[in-house]
Structures are given as structure tokens and as C-alpha cells.
Amino acid sequence: MMEAKQEAIDELKDNLGKKKVADDIATRIVHRFTHGPEILLHSEWDKFTPGCVVYPETVEETQMVVRVADKYEIPIVPQGGRTCTYGAEGMYGCIAVDLARMDKIVDFDESNYRITVEAGMRAVDFINFLAEKGYMSLEFPTMNRASQMGSRAALHGYNKFEGRWGSSGNHIKALEVVLPNAKAVWLGRGTRFPTKSVVGYNLKDLFIGSRGTLGIITKLTERFIDPPPKYIYGISAFKDWRDAFKTYIDLKRPLMLSAGVWRVKSYHKWLLSQAVKAILELDWPEEVAALTDYHILGYPEVVEATERLVKRVVSEHNGYWSEDLPETTFIGRMHESMEKYMGMGAIGTERIEKGGMGDRIVPYDPGIPDGNLIKMYEEHLEHLRKMEDGEHYPALADSMRVLSPGEPVPTDLSYTKLWGQWLANLKKFDDEARNEFKQWFAEWANIIWRYNGSLTATHNFIPRDMEVDLRKRELGEDYYELMRAIKRVIDPKNIMNPKVIF
Length: 502
Ligand SMILES: Cc1cc2nc3c(=O)[nH]c(=O)nc-3n(C[C@H](O)[C@H](O)[C@H](O)COP(=O)(O)OP(=O)(O)OC[C@H]3O[C@@H](n4cnc5c(N)ncnc54)[C@H](O)[C@@H]3O)c2cc1C
Hints:
19 helices; four-stranded mixed beta sheet; 4 domains; Uridine Diphospho-n-acetylenolpyruvylglucosamine Reductase, domain 2; binds flavin-adenine dinucleotide; Alpha-Beta Plaits; alpha+beta; Uridine Diphospho-n-acetylenolpyruvylglucosamine Reductase, domain 3; single chain
């Protein structure tokens, strides 16, 4: 595999124009990292520096970039807002493709609830456009101000109302992709618009979650919905986190979903005590072990009837609310600040006070079947305590701490992801801490698998030098080999994001 040599960069400049190709060191440095934690595991950062960054404005220009990459066999890394935990990091000498200038609405098919946009459109602009037209987007990631729509497909994004409506792959009905041979092809079920078809293989879904390893997504067609006329938010406190989790599980049962409970989530004291301190400067009440909140949406009569059912479930599990607790709106504020500061934890760190890099959020999100959630969480909490106790992993205890031990949120029916965050001190994270983190991670993988879980329900990172081994162990050798065979057929020169997955 080559790095972008001057000849290739000149060819890109000749074809795209100088304003669409940047090879100055400042731009290249900006494009080497994402919000992902992989950076923690390396002391040599130059190996992430792209050779140049290109800014195509059309599908034809994107094809041109791929043609040059193919000719010189230079790796391509597609990049959106670079907020993801894994996959958009640069590679030394690669061509980083920044899609931000491809941000237009291509088609708005109001009567059929379909919209087609270019891949570089920001999620927030997509959401706002639909809201202005009187509709509701089903895409709703936390970092929506930076996330791009193409990335939603490339990583099969997680959305606010996932429990009711599913992840990005459920909303995306068709994709335009520039393949490694520089051909642009539309992939959908059958033709672009039918929602069910058995005319051909479902190739669109092969690209959902492919993280730029099979091609560059340039356009996508999504479904959207009418906004529900009534929305009720509620929250309850619990003295035992297990009761909070049982409430969570009961409120996400299939009939509750169809009755209008679109979202439910639990929050452990480990997170809450840090969050209220950072956001409200309050001490968390000792006796409250966890919270569970819920969102009910739909027609007013249905929402009101569902709320009565929900309250019954909450009280059966000993849920309550008291005046001593912080205002219920603080959960919303916690989410707001999370987006604003690229992670709630950054508030309590040097990053805001001094600017630039201080501590670093390390998000994680294992997937677990609901039936195993409580047992798994008990073991997971034990393992998290080892991260901090100073006895089991002394170097790690000195450089990493637990911000959130994992908040259960729905994925598929009867499945949950634990959305959690560690906070790492970038300056202290030395080789010893790196090794201990990897040991900690390997043991954690065994806990997750013991409960039939997955290392990542949506887009968690796996340390790169453990990645192939852990993927094979989770998926099985045959599955992994099938993926590799598909990759070889579509990308025989291995130019598309080659360091990812394989
Ligand atoms: C605090 C925090 C909260 C988060 N909450 C959520 C959440 O609620 N839901 C959620 O889904 N995610 C969440 N994320 C992860 C991330 O912010 C989102 O997934 C986001 O949508 C990623 O978009 P991006 O444009 O930043 O992607 P990037 O990081 O730029 O890219 C992600 C991957 O997609 C590939 N890619 C990007 N564009 C293309 C393209 N056009 N063609 C092919 N491949 C492409 C990249 O190569 C990379 O592998 C969170 C992250 C943080 C830090």
C-alpha cells in the first residue's frame, strides 16, 4: 500500500482544483483523529496523518478521487463529522475524503414520506428541514450538530427513538455509493422506492455499518414520519438499581412500545452523582441508587392511557419521586452538555478550563439480551470497580476513571445496549496503562460473551491491535472469512479504509 505521493496529489489538484485539495500540515493534522479513543493507545501520532484531504462537491468528483486512489493504490478514509468512536481516523499518507461540501437536499417526496439527501449533510440540518416542513426525522443522534448523514449509513447509527423505530439502517431505503472501481451505483431494495422486493440480493444492507471499507456513500434516501401530537416525559427514582432496571425492562416490552413508550432509559448513581455535581453543583442524595425515565408519544388519548399503565409499572417496582431530587429537566441538560462539550465528562476536566486536549471520553456500548441484563450488570460493575481500585490495574487506576457505568437503552426488541463512558487522562496514559487497559478489556469481553452479549451494540471501539482476534471470537472464523471474501471482491486493491475491521 502506497502513501499519497506528490504525483497523485498534483493529479487531484489538476482535476478538482486547488481549493478542493489540502496538503498543508495543519489541515492534515486536524484530519488525523476523530473523537474515538484509539489515540490513547498510541504514542506515535504521525501514523494517523493523511497525505492530503479532499473536499469533493459532486458524485463525479468523488469518483475522480477514487480513480486517482485506485491508480496509485493509495488508501482512502471517508470522513464525516469525525465524532464517531471508531473508523474515521486517518492513516499515514492516505487520502482523507471530507464530504462536508456535499450537503444538499436532492429530493423531498412529501406524499410518500421519503427524502433524498447528499451524504455530507449534517444530521441537524436534516432534522430541522423536516421539522420546518411539519415532519419528524427518525435520525436523531446525540452529536447531531456534527454528524453527517452518510456516516449514519456507514455506521448504522443509534437514534433517540431506537426502541420504537430502530436504527439508521431501518430508515435508510436507498444509497448511492462510489465503489472502489470508481463506479457510482444506487442500492436499494429492488429499485429505489419499493419497500419490499426479492428481485436481487439486499446489497444496500451490506453497506449499512460498513464504515467506509466498501465504498464512499454519496447520497441516501430516508423515510420520515408525522410528528406525534402529544409527548409526555416522566422519570422515577429507585433505592435499588435492580428495581430501576426491572422497570426499564417492563417499560420496553413489545406491547408498551406499541402503546406509545418510544424511549426508556436507566441511569446509575455512579453517573448521576458526577453529573449533578458538574452541571448543577449539587450532591446526589445517597439513598437514590438509580433513575429510570420514559417518553410516551402519540395521540393524546392513547398517551394519557399509556401514562397510567406506566405509572402502575413504576410503582410495582417501588419507583417514587421526592422534592429533594434535582429538577427532572436536568437529564435533558445532561444530554445537551454532552453534545456541546463532546461528552459530559469534559465539563469536569482541564479541557474546558485550559482548552485543547485534557482528558478524553472513552465511550463503550456492549449489547446484552434483556433477560441477562441484571446479572451481567452485577459482574460488569465489579469489573469496573477493579479499574479504579488501584490494586488490580494500578497504572490504569491512575489514568482512567468511570464516568458512567453504562446506562441501559433499547436496541432491538428485548435487547439493550449499555451506553457508558470512561474518562482517560491523555497525558498519563502511558505504555503501562495501555497494557493494563487491554488486559482489562479482554477480561471484560469474556464477561459480555458469557451473557450472550456483543462487544458493541452499535459503534463502540475495540483496541485496534486486539480487533481481529476479538471480532473472530465474537463472530466465528467462518463469518469473519466471509466478510473478508466480500471485501476482496468489492475492493481487490484494499484501498477503502483498510485499517478498519480487517
Ligand atoms: C458523546 C457521544 C455521544 C454519541 N451518541 C451517539 C448516538 O446517540 N447515536 C449514534 O449513532 N452515535 C453516537 N455517537 C457516535 C457518533 O457521534 C455518531 O455515530 C455520528 O453519527 C457519527 O457521524 P460522523 O459524521 O461524525 O462520522 P465519522 O466519525 O466521521 O465517521 C464514522 C464512520 O463512517 C465512515 N464514513 C463517514 N462518512 C462516510 C461516507 N460518506 N461513506 C462511507 N463511509 C463514511 C467513516 O470512515 C467512519 O468509519 C456519539 C459519540 C459521542 C462522542
